[in-house]
Design brief:
- The strands form two sheets. A three-stranded mixed beta sheet has the order 3-2-5. A two-stranded antiparallel ribbon has the order 1-4.
- It contains eleven helices and five strands.
- It has helices at about 25-55, 60-90, 95-130, 135, 140-160, 160-165, 185-190, 195-230, 235-265, 270-295, 300-310, and strands at about 5, 15, 95, 170, 175.
- Helix 8 (about 195-230) packs antiparallel against helix 9 (about 235-265).
- By secondary structure, it is mostly helical.
- About 75% of the residues lie in helices and about 5% in strands.
């Protein structure tokens, strides 16, 4: 059996198969895909515009929301346009360079998104546990530096992923059973030794989701301790209300990816199209709902957005 690898000379094209077993329903599946994507773009671009335009929102909390919106636009845009081209026009081909580029930026934005959520947890911790020093500890410059650290971490973690994929041989099939170039989907169609790739994929998960969830858990442990020391029930409720939006976003962001990661490695009895639908919804639903959650729960942001809507 002849084999090729991703560094072979000549054009090599992979075939993104969309959602195997549901090819007849691709047009119908494209309706929620495109609807969620449009709502996500409208919500996140509105948030970016309002935060950039309003000087009163140039504060650490809103700068973090600005970063979160950027990562969510990037994550969904890496995947949805190509997925819709498969569903609508049956354009399934993708070049090796295009595949690796899509994978790199998808996981880059994903890692940055996780880093922003950690920083937002730290922001809530300072606001509740040390409110008098909030303005001196969390300055705009410090938030920018934390954002840069998150970007550097994401690049250093994700960059080796396409590089080690290039050394894998692929025999016979070039069909990727997914709507986008997902790492494990590529690993599964290789006929070579994939132990390094599988191990490094697990390292990335542990260094992003595992580490970040641990830090968020420790942060909220300290927040709960501080809240329990407050005698007033009204103060309890007020303190916890400031965390509600962040907790909702954390649950929506991490629950699907944890489930998807576990089922990819240990859920062999789960149908393939369920894996793919879950992966796709994880990239679509949180970016659509997060700006709505923060718009509803954050009074100052809601008022500013309302002001611009009334001008239309």
């Amino acid at each position: 059996m002849s084999a090729f690898n991703l560094t072979s000379s000549g054009p090599i094209t992979f075939i993104l198969n969309g959602i195997p077993g549901l090819e007849a329903a691709h047009i119908w599946i494209s309706i929620p895909f495109s609807t969620f994507y449009i709502i996500s773009l409208l919500g996140n671009f509105t948030l970016l515009f309002v935060v950039a335009k309003e000087e009163t929102l140039h504060k650490p909390m809103y700068l973090l929301l600005f970063m979160l919106a950027l990562t969510e636009i990037g994550t969904s845009t890496c995947v949805v346009p190509k997925a819709l081209s498969i569903f609508w026009f049956d354009f399934k081909g993708i070049t090796v360079d295009g595949c690796l580029t899509q994978m790199f930026f998808l996981y880059l934005f994903d890692a940055m998104h996780s880093a922003v959520l950690v920083t937002m947890g730290f922001d809530r911790y300072i606001a509740i546990c040390n409110p008098l020093r909030y303005d001196t500890i969390l300055t705009n410059a410090r938030i920018a530096k934390l954002g840069l650290v998150g970007l550097i971490r994401a690049v250093l973690l994700v960059l080796p992923l396409p590089l080690i994929l290039q050394r894998l041989p692929f025999c016979a099939t070039r069909v990727i059973l997914h709507t986008y170039c997902e790492h494990m989907a590529l690993v599964k169609i290789s006929c070579g030794d994939t132990r390094v790739n599988r191990t490094y994929g697990l390292v990335i998960i542990l260094m992003t989701i595992g580490l970040d969830l641990t830090l968020i858990g420790l942060t909220y442990g300290q927040i709960i301790r501080a809240v329990l020391r407050i005698s007033s029930k009204k103060a309890h409720q007020k303190a916890l209300n400031t965390c509600t939006a962040h907790i909702c976003v954390i649950l929506m962001s991490y629950s699907p990816v944890l489930f998807s990661t576990l089922t990819q490695r240990f859920g062999q009895n789960i149908a393939g199209h369920i894996h793919i639908l879950l992966d796709s919804l994880y990239l679509l639903v949180p970016p659509m709902l997060n700006p709505i959650i923060y718009g509803v729960k954050t009074k100052e942001l809601r008022n500013k957005v309302g002001k611009y809507i009334c001008r239309l």
